[in-house]
Design brief:
Elements lengths: L5 E6 L6 H15 L4 E6 L5 H4 L8 H10 L10 H10 L3 E2 L3 E5 L10 H15 L4 E6 L4 H4 L8 E6 L3 H16 L6 E7 L3 H6 L1 H5 L4 E6 L3 H8 L12 H12 L3
Parallel strand pairs: 1-5, 1-6, 2-4, 2-5, 6-7, 7-8
Antiparallel strand pairs: 3-4
Helix pairs in contact: 1-11, 4-5
Length: 254
């Protein structure tokens, strides 16, 4: 696919492995060497950067609050818009082939409309520099109801094989239809989906009315890396989870 700025947003119930899946997809896209990948951590309980072995010193929530407090202290010779753009750029953690922006905490009391509009505009400009953008959204459906996931090419709903996870996946899919989200494709990624349990859960999986774009099996190699707080980027290429993420990217025809 020759298009630029392909946006992939992940959603799902908390605890189903959404951030792990996001990190695996970022790795799979990076390994293709077709262009830089922009990871956006839109979950207030931010940890996407940790999974990618990157350290975030300041996030967008911190910058937004600081801008609000110091909006009158713009340096001489800078417009308000340029100053805000400069401050937002401070949040981007740059690495080889992957950059990450952490959204941080939601807005506090006060009016953020003007600041948010400028920030979104700048984010849009930044996005043009990347082949792929992967957004790890907060758990649940709040981001969809607020329409904070911007234009989405691929909405990937992540679930394990539990009843709560799969029911949440169906609700997210139903809500996305009610909100008329413009997406090219919406699909389901099943995490820790080993064959035997997958077959037993077929009925409830089918009830989500979502096409399965891929299954990530239980992977002791990945589990050991997570337990050691190691980077997903360092997991051996023959790991079952890494291979499954590569298969998902292939299935999406990216």
């Amino acid at each position: 696919m020759s298009e630029k700025n392909i946006t992939i947003a992940l959603s799902g119930k908390g605890g189903v492995g959404k951030t792990t899946t996001a990190a695996l997809l970022v790795r799979a896209l990076k390994d293709r060497k077709e262009g830089a990948v922009f990871g956006i951590d839109a979950d207030p309980n931010s940890c996407l950067a940790d999974y990618l072995g990157l350290e975030v010193d300041i996030n967008l929530g911190d910058i937004r609050e600081d801008i609000i407090k110091n909006i009158s202290n713009i340096p001489n010779g800078m417009t308000k818009e340029r100053w805000i753009n400069y401050r937002v750029h401070e949040c981007i953690v740059e690495s080889t082939g992957i950059d990450v922006l952490e959204m941080g905490r939601p807005e506090g009391p006060g009016c953020y409309c003007y600041i948010n509009n400028l920030i979104r505009g700048y984010e849009g400009e930044v996005n043009q520099n990347y082949k792929y953008t992967v957004i790890d959204n907060e758990a649940g459906m709040e981001h969809l109801s607020r329409r904070t996931s911007r234009t989405i090419d691929y909405l990937l709903i992540v679930s394990d094989l539990s009843n709560p996870g799969l029911k949440a996946a169906k609700r997210i899919n139903d809500l996305s239809k009610k909100l008329d989200l413009v997406t090219r494709y919406t699909g389901l990624i099943l995490n820790k989906a080993d064959d035997e349990l997958y077959e037993k859960r077929k009925d409830i999986i089918d009830a989500t009315e979502l096409e399965i774009v891929g299954r990530i099996p239980s992977d002791p190699v990945l589990a050991n890396f997570e337990a050691d707080f190691a980077s997903v980027l360092d997991i051996p290429a023959d790991s079952a989870a890494v291979k499954a993420a590569e298969d998902i990217i292939t299935a999406l025809k990216l």
